[in-house]
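RETRY 2/3 - previous attempt timed out on the joint model. Re-submitting the same 518-residue input unchanged.
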Amino acid sequence: MNTAQIRFATLWRREVNRFMKIKKQTLGAPLLETFLYIMVFGAALGSRIKELHGIEYILFVIPGLIMMAWSINSFANNSSSILQQKFQGAIQDQLSSPASPLELLLAFSLGGFMRGLLVALLTFLAASLLVDLPVDHILVLIPALFLVGFFFSQLGVLIGVRAEQFDDVAFAQTFVLQPLIFLGGVFYSATLLPEPFSTLTHFNPLFYMINLVRYGFIGYSEVSVALSLLALTAATAALFLFNLRLFSRGYRLRA
Amino acid sequence: MRRFRAMNALDIEELEKRYPTGVEALRGVSLRIAPGELFGLLGPNGAGKSTLIHCTTGLAQPTGGTIQVFGHDAIGDYGPARQAVGLAPQEPNLDWFLTVEETLDYHAGYFGMPKRERRERTAELLETFSLTEKADERTRTLSGGMKRRLILARAMMHRPRLLILDEPTAGVDVELRLELWHYVQRINAEGTTILLTTHYLEEAEQLCDRIAFIDHGEIVGEGTSGELSARYGVDNLEDAYLTLVGRKELSRSHVPVEPETVP
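RETRY 2/3 succeeded.
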């Protein structure tokens, strides 16, 4: 490995090492949470609802839960990691190294991405033990999940950089991200909502992400898959470029 | 024929730093430190010492002037410039999630050091700073003195040519202070250039080849300890410092000595 590769690998390793050292909190807790969702919404509620648009309810819900696990964990990891390092001052060790803004941004992003990937993968394996989960469109599913993971990793970085106290991170996660995910149709179909809520759901970007992932798994979507994929790619690229600009300017990182 | 100025370890020219709040932390600071020099930067709290250090290491962004580290522009050519600098900051800024050994290993990795070299260098510095027994402990469990040792070891990890020590002996006991002095003198003798900030004037007097006084973001005096004392017609560096920062009335030379009384 050359110098730049060693540098990047170390920056990335630090991020993975951090969440692996507290895995009860960073991997165990989200897994339990997702498992409880599957139990309550899938098994308990599912026995009453049976089917949605001809699809078994538990199969309708699980893709959204996998997406939710990846997105929330990617976001939470990066926002917390950056804020903690700013708070401790430990981030100075990385900022005063020869690492470029791009290397720093990618390493911080990939930490959360990895945690989200692990939780989502374990959720998928756990769900596969309970139900026969199909993967109908793997060529849509993989890019969709990767884009969702990278988008929320970037969002976590942005909030972590902007945050000045832990309250700022908690606010973004509890009052913005979670309501958007819950109201994005993880547990229900937007077509079942009365107006104006059905229309309003279409203004929620999470609705499109959930539909993409659901289409990848079970082949059902309430929106155009191609258009959603394109919009998600554009939004992820825009957020990444915005973060790169913040890192290059040293926004709230360098005095 | 074109003439080149001899390359300095640190070459700061008209450095300015104005914070968004409007505070001018540095107002046209110019400073040159020759390779191999042990240079002291003294000044009261808030004088601009840490800001100058932060601008040099990329932790703060100057609003004017230039900084060159061994000929590399610290802004435009920051990679080689930062590679040449090791920083032991004033406030402990250790990563709570890492062990002592990981702290050194990761730091060296950030500077691109290969794995085998990292392992050898880590073992060497753990030994030098009497940290070998603490290698597997998390940094947050260390005592203040141990944290100070680790911060210095971390700064040395990638073999910097310019070592910046921001008040390295603040709050440490006499034994550790003397240990650090010996270490600083040793690595300086081996060729490492050192920029030291301290509030202990006797420390600067004993260790430094040259000293600069900084006050209100400006260099207000520069030279050897003897030159500074002679220039201001005082007996020692402390009085020169007090004269320069306008607090001459605090000089201990003027304090009348009370005769000892037996109770």
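The interface with chain B takes residues 1-4, 6-7, 9-11, 13-14, 17-18, 21-22, 84-85, 88-90, 92-100, 250, 254-255 of chain A (CB under 8 Å). Closing ticket.
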